[in-house]
């Protein structure tokens, strides 16, 4: 809250200050006025403010002249200055050239101020080189302007732009008449724009009359430190007069605002200095670059005919710099085709490394960003853009680069775009705020995983662990992990599959424990590849999960899923000795963990059971282990041998009591008389007592006899139904033969008959035929029931007992035989 209150107070103070400064601004309705930038124009009376156009939200710069700043002049002089300044703005508005300041809103006047709007600007050149005219109003410049330092390439290209503007004016038969730092504006891109046409004159021939009143207010006079000799002495000017002023400008920007001579805004001093210029010493040019000294001396020649014109100045070797040439090409991109543009973009990165950050960010980058709309050119400009991003701060990236670059993140073709972005993914992550990573970078990564290019996929998998900590839980579980797992299973390339597993292993520590166990550890057995590299990557994931303090694998998962999956891998033929040792070592480690954890659990369980047993009256039931169980099974069954086994152990009091109880129960069972059923039971007379009737109801029943009777009834029913079923089945057969029903049943049922026994595996033979027919397709088991014993299908049935069982006289013999 304290932070927000400070922001609020700062905003309120800024608005109040601007309100006091911008009272009566006629453009306040069309533009949102921002911070103060600097000053410009004759005597630096125009104030520059950052602004945004309300209708289009375009950046602009508002130039404001407060009339009260001219209160030191008389009313007539004040009106003269105002008309003089209005005339200069009107001429500036009519001129259109890339090197001339562009006016976006014409001059408007209110009772208190003049104002007009132009393209977005930074400050004037006079604010940068600190070239102030005596008597100019003192202003407090912003910190950014105070720290602004001109680069050599920026100076060269700025001078070239001024020369281009002069070439345009001279071709239009005009002379500027007041070239100085006060009349040059540096726009937001770092380009130098010519302005201040207050003293501009039109040529009627080779020269023009150049009149100025030395007694007029200072704002209406040229800067005496930059005026040409013929303008001061003869009151005439030519295009060469502007070139002289340009030579002084070259000297000034290389000398921190100083000029070859200082007139202190005095005309008599100017004349004395101009006489000295006839023999201008070369030693004064030692502070200039060596390549510029001879050319500046020509520009400062007293004889105007010796000075080079604007076109010749542009061709000087001093301006033939690779940086100047590159910046000039960037300004003329709209005139070039794609092949020429690509050639320029390829050679741009070495030039950007030599340029200051300010020029790269505000001068070069806008030219590159204009090509984002053409996907075919993006691969050529991305190396330069990424190089500029490395120079910028996070705030500069978000404000100046990210808004235009969001379009690039959506491109999937050409694939070189994704490749270049993925190579610098760590840089982009460090510059982008978290919401930009979620909204722009992460979708680009998803598209890269689905791309058909192996290089793109593997590069994406290598960069994922760098920013997975910024991915939200839902996106990680529902989008990122499924895509990586799908690519790992679907791909046919071993290298890509290994990259997927390595990527999963690296992001494992950023996952929730149960997400790692359920979505990664449980998924690994689905990988069917048995290449040694893939197996080692799987082993690596298990090691990370097993040893990481945040994760870990539970003993249940180890025992039921992981170890059963790893054990068969030991005998894989693709493993060498070292890899085999790693797999075995990991399995042993997992087994040891399972053993230790479960032993600890069992020890705690036994301890708790003993505590419960000691606190309760009942003794616990001890479960035998495997050795004790199989020792009892293998021992002799007689009591003597069993007592020997028991005697070898130390028995507790509870065990001894339990053994005594068991022996008592066994002795009771042995001494108990067996139950003998009475087959001759008959109904008791009704005169017997009620107690006898109840005993007869509860008398023992012969279960063996009941079972035999039941089986006999079932067998008789099946035998009776046998012949009708055989006839039905034989009618359905299409074989032309007549069955022989003249079977000697006495011979058949004889115990010595060879047909006494029948097996299901034998085929059925028809009497009277020499050949054996094929087994019927009907199912004998379904018709006859299960006559076989549980021993198998080849067991036989004794048919001779059919007749014997049907005889009542033989039934008792069978029962007696079964009992014995």
The coarse overall form would be elongated
- Name of the CATH first level of the domain at 15-319: Mainly Alpha
Structural class: alpha+beta
Helix content: 40-55%
Strand content: 5-15%
Q: How is the largest sheet built, in terms of strand order?
A: 1-2-3-5-4
Overall mean pLDDT stands at 76
CATH topology-level name of the domain at 15-319: Transferase(Phosphotransferase), domain 1
Largest sheet: 5 strands, antiparallel
Give unreliable regions as ranges.
Answer: 15-22, 633-637, 639-649, 678-699, 734-745, 753-806
SS elements, strand count: 14
CATH superfamily of the domain at 15-319: Transferase(Phosphotransferase) domain 1
Number of helical segments with 4 or more residues: 36
What is the CA–CA distance across the termini?
104 Å
Please state the CA-atom Rg, rounded to the nearest Å: 55 Å
What is the CATH-assigned architecture of the domain at 15-319?
A: Orthogonal Bundle
